[in-house]
Design brief:
The protein has 62 residues and is an all-beta fold. It is built from no helices and six strands. The chain starts with a strand and ends with a strand.
């Protein structure tokens, strides 16, 4: 599975995408799509956030 992230916010906090449970740490460029490929995901919820944890979300795999 590939997720595409488009960073629109200029704040430094939005530069990094972290998905700790999956060992993902990706730098996101401003106004560009960054593809993140995830393989062999077990069903469940995977929290993600920026480096300062101001932006947060959950990836749900069914």
């Amino acid at each position: 599975m590939t997720l595409n992230f488009l960073r629109k916010d200029q704040s430094p906090c939005s530069e990094m995408l972290l998905i700790p449970d999956l060992g993902v740490s990706e730098q996101l460029e401003l106004d560009k799509v960054t593809p993140v490929t995830l393989t062999d995901l077990a069903p469940g919820e995977y929290p993600f956030h920026c480096q300062m944890q101001m932006y947060r979300g959950t990836l749900t795999v069914v």
